[in-house]
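Hi, here's the filled form for the chain we discussed.

Project: internal
Contact: R.S.
Residues: 338
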Amino acid sequence: MAAGAGTMDVVPAPIPVILDVDTGVDDACALLLAELHPSLNLQAVTCVAGNAGVDQVVTNTLAVLAAAGRTDVPVARGTARPLIEVPREARHVHGEDGMGDLDHAFLGLPPVTAAADPRHAVELLRDLLDEAHERTEPVTLVPLAPLTNIALLLRTYPQAAKGLRHIVFMGGAANIGNATASAEFNVWQDPEAAAVVLDACRELSVPVTMYGLDVFYDVRVTRVDATTLSAGASAVARLAGALVAFQCERFGIDDATVGDAGAVCAVIDPDGLRTTALPVHVELTGARTRGQTVVDRRRWAGDVRHDPHGVAPTVVDVATSVDAERWRRLWLETVRSQ
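And the returned structure, exactly as it came back:
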């Protein structure tokens, strides 16, 4: 290029991502964003029991991908229950089918023609991460569900961690609970799995961001936005509008969180999120605190020295605040783009 000539902007390559889900109204919001945003290369979706049973989760996930014409994305069935706990679904939040009990025909959603990948979710994750390592194109893993699949992956196939760039998980909290007064649903559903994942990530040097309840509810879309989306020409917009409208109706409010989609926003636009590196421990024994993510924010070394438990060995980037309006626009513009 001649001296003084302008330079062309280099467009970054899309970020390879895999989502692990228990779809879920808010998981569906996250899937729509991940499958459509040009900054992401959605390589697979793995499913686990949580908001609904795992077979229903697979069905819901395939339906969301079909709405966006992304039947190229492999979907794999994972574990049907937590490591120790009995399964405890969240139909009271997400509807009987786990995804708002929507009338797909009324919304004009395309039929689901794709089938799940024959591999178990853990095997699919292993294969894709091994391939990513061989290509030196590490993947960002975004778990939006109980961490059962991820715990089994990292303990069964620890070499797969070489294909990971980062884990951004929706779960936990520093200051609030929802499943109980002290515990967030995804961690409470399988606290042993969450503890295993944090330990394994420390041992395997995988960076972790915890997108928890402290920011989860902040990115919101209004009932008016939902009405506009529902009148859209695309199946994606109509599905997005219906998901928001369902939440507004269920909770009797005029706006609704996009929930898990915030963790996907954190990958696309990390500047919209503020985090602090803090030790995090998953409580496994307390009668009222089981599943709590204990976030250590002490500043005085004297307190730490006299704590008989010591400091949690795993340090996590804990989300503390979010630019909610920025990410609201990001989600809306993406689902309107189709």
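Let me know if anything looks off before we file it.
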